[in-house]
Amino acid sequence: MPSAIRITELDQLTDRVDVLLCDVWGVIHNGVNPFPLSVETLKAARARGQTVILITNSPRPASDVRLQFETIGVDPDCFDDMVTSGDVTRQLVREAPRAIYFVGPERDRMLVDGLDVALVDAPDAGAVLCTGLFEDETEKPEDYRALLETFRERDLPFICANPDRVVERGDRLVPCAGALADLYADMGGTTRIAGKPHAPIYREALARARAIRGEVDTGRVLAIGDGVTTDIRGAMDNGVPSLFIARGIHAREYGEGRATDEARLHAFLERAGVAPSYWMEWLA
Question: What predicted TM-score, i.e. pTM, was given to this entire model?
């Protein structure tokens, strides 16, 4: 498997890239604070004529993510459009049985606003919609095993609105809906997922890019992210070159203080079975 090429500045790729599909959590912000250098880098890319589509596994609609940007101070001028896992998951919800049991924090229930569904108690459900853990600050995925077993016994489809296993929140990692989806699949349950690394969110992101700039050559698209099983695997599976941001959720695997041990990084990527086209410490 070829080794990723290290770059130090995104503008090294200007002549090769027309469209940037950029992850959000871990690249643009950590859930609490924005990364100013990353924001300015994307603004500069747009000024050079590149199109920036944010592509995030947030289980919320893009409108809610935009509000979060306002709250924590992410400049909206750093992107042209945004697609969330929540946006594309709504289609899976439309195709599911109407009676749905919701797993996730109360704030995420807006995901079903405007859809012809009824949120019901677990015994009455024909499907499960998961946006995360009820209390991700205190719970862990294993706490849900007994509940998931009742769903598996009834062969309920498990719709996962956020395929991420963990996400940064400040300087901590907290579990996400993807960890519950993994557990359910390991138990023999059926999962339905539209976010990264799966194809629906990439189709929608590229459609948004085409709406802005016309025909798009996927060979001149660059997916940027810090998650190997979502951002990098998704780019590979969907035929898009990728840029791995090392100082994200996997930094503990190869970090030495605030520097990356390059040999350990390449060994980590090989173990993960992924081959990003490029890598850099931060988006700069």
Answer: 0.92
